[in-house]
Design goal:
Layout lengths: L1 H18 L1 E9 L10 E4 L5 E3 L5 E8 L1 E9 L2 E10 L7 E4 L14 H8 L5 E4 L1 H4 L11 H5 L5 E3 L7 E3 L7 E5 L2 E2 L18 E7 L13 E7 L8 E7 L2 E11 L7 E11 L1 H4 L16 E13 L5 E15 L3 E16 L6 E18 L4 E18 L4 E19 L5 E20 L3 E12 L4 E13 L4 E12 L2 E2 L13 E2 L8 E2 L2 E2 L5 E13 L4 E18 L22 E18 L3 E15 L4 E2 L7 E11 L5 E10 L3 E2 L2 E7 L16 E6 L5 E2 L3 E15 L2 E10 L7 E5 L4 E4 L4 E9 L1
Parallel strand pairs: 1-7, 11-14
Antiparallel strand pairs: 1-4, 2-3, 2-5, 5-6, 8-13, 9-10, 11-12, 13-14, 15-16, 15-47, 16-17, 17-18, 18-19, 19-20, 20-21, 21-22, 22-23, 23-24, 24-25, 25-26, 26-27, 27-32, 28-29, 30-31, 32-33, 33-34, 34-35, 35-36, 35-37, 37-38, 38-43, 39-42, 40-41, 43-44, 44-47, 45-46
Amino acid sequence: MKRIISFLSFFFLHIIIIAQTGTIRGMIYDEVLEPAMGASVIVKNSSFYGVSDFNGVFIIPNLPFGDYALEVSYIGYATQNINFSVQSKNSDLIKIFLKESATQLDDIKINVERQERKNDVSVSVVKLTSKTINKLPSIGGEPDVAQFLQILPGVVFTGDQGGQLYIRGGAPIHNKVLLDGMTIYSPFHSIGFFSVFDTDLIKKADVYTGGFGAEYGGRISSIMDIQTRDGNKKKLSSKLSANTFASKLLIEGPIFKYQDGGTSGSFIFSGKKSYLNQTSKSIYSYIDTTGVGLPYKFSDFYCKLSFSSPNGSKVNIYGFNFNDNVNYIDVTEMGWLTYGFGTNILLVPASAKMLVEGKLSYSKYDVSQQDFEQPLNTSSIGGYNIGLNFSYFISQEHKVKYGAEILGQSTLLEFRNSIGTLVTSDDNYDVFSGYVDYKYNNTRLIVNPGLRIQSYTSMGEVSLEPRLGLKYNLNEKFRIKASCGIFSQNLLSTSSERDVVNLFSGFLSSPNSLPADFQGNEVQSYLQKSNHYILGFEYDVNDYLDFNIEGYVKNFSQLIAENKNRLFPDNLDSQDEPDYLKKAFIVESGLASGFDVLLKYANDRLNIWSVYSFGIVERQDEIQVYYPHYDRRHNFNFLCSYLFGHKKDFEFSIRWNYGSGFPFMKTQGYYEQLNLNNGLNTDFNTQNGDLGVMYSGLASGRLPSYHRLDMSLKKSHNIFQTATLEWSIGVTNIYNRENIFYYNRVEAQRVNQLPILPSLGLKFIF
């Protein structure tokens, strides 16, 4: 009885103590009233701490009632000490406004990224900012996220022209790209130097090359989550830049001036347009002696309105329009247009321990391609996306994030495959998903389990996708990490992993022509699926040098691809033929394995990234095991940027990339290929056939290795009190390496990637 009484006494005393605790919550802003992401908040003389998120919000729960001293630090800003009293369960929101430091905190050995790695699983993720991206050599005068992605561990880039990104064995369709929560279906322009994103707009870009948490779904390989910054809430400012490739204008400022304790509103607009197709006729005339110029042109526009309330809640409204066009005269013309609009919200409830995030968006993507004397290929995808996320801070050690999402899409496709067979699709589908993500952190051990449920209602399928992330801090410098998970997606592309050049990429959601079985097992699902397994460790060598290595396995248990072996129509006349010779799509499996090594050095002047990736990618269809065209075994990138001059106003950057040769199919011979577009009405007696190519087995040969050296030099000048002029000179492919693009087998002609490309750029900031 005494034991029971003692236990009950202890229990109720514990409840009383918990009831006498409160929460510190606040928002941190930089000098232009932009939320400061990654600021450190330490409660002095205690084990309590917090880190501000993307919205500048930090929450420190379960502090006993009393008076506290907070220390707030952020790179580039002066450390602030704030006294705060916790006397109730729900404390008022603190607003902290940082001030730039005359002595940069880079010199004080504070590394926010390193602190974040100690408190997060952070498996297979690289977190980028506009500052990081700007360390690249400025190709065409403008560093771009597309260029930086090419140097990341596990990323394979297939070329300067029409290049695509393949991440740890996944195809481009297996990568999801998000812009402010909205899916972008074509994030890169046909000339591989540029994305649709303006670097000056980017606040953060988190790139997950595998093993991502339950918050993300709908793709089986990787996630790139890009968030844009708000506009300047203090004053109107602009950036105008022009170079030999393109020009850009960015304008931002307050809609109404910020007042302490009141609301605020701001806007930001960015527009860029290329004219390489024109300047290449004169400046780069040596590339194309026909006088036509390089066949690329694009334009990108983005606008965002931001409104914040006194309690920290926020509403963003945004819209975009991106387009691209490629015109190889008498060969092919391809163009795409994507546009969208949406809103996302942040709610900071009075309950203090919770944040609520919501999103609502609509987007549309249209693409068409007209090959010379061939039928037009078209495709489109569009629809809406609604989502809610809840972050609940249980205690210093425990945090839960959960949410739900509804995706409604329609796809339209009219496409002729490599043998002239018409593939059509007109689908409408809905995907309902929910997730829960739990994080336990006791300083040494971090456990991050999660579960995502994907319900593909139009296909009648439900996918249960458990995820798990682990990290153990052996000491202050050395950490072991691991993750695993199950992933699925319904969206697939007409682009074949067997083709080196894929300008046209159509979309469909549910193929209606699949084989009945694969490798002796019945095909019961229309979904593509994968399992990820990752193990690695991090080591902080010293105050400036970080080492990271990860080994991975991606098991693509089911892939769906265009059937390149199709010889017969899928009808009663060919019912005796095997499925792999008559179905429009086939089922495959795949395995990607390898390891990535990243070595980073950073101080106030010198930044170095050294990346080596080794990977093997295999695919297996009903006939054979083969290596897809992006199976690059060895990939090495070296990036170095150096600030010099008394004011550190000169910046010199170089980047060198080496990649071993891609596999390709050798040519065995030629034959007369008849055009069967008219079906049974084809006149075989009078028709002249085209020259057909007989190929050897898949991956029967290897192309030469790829390597390229880029360089740039930038200088800033303060021309007025509030204006800056920046000039840059750059050279792409300095030693004019002849890297192969593709081989025209019919004309027996090699086509190379881009040669040496010098550039000059000017940027006016005011």
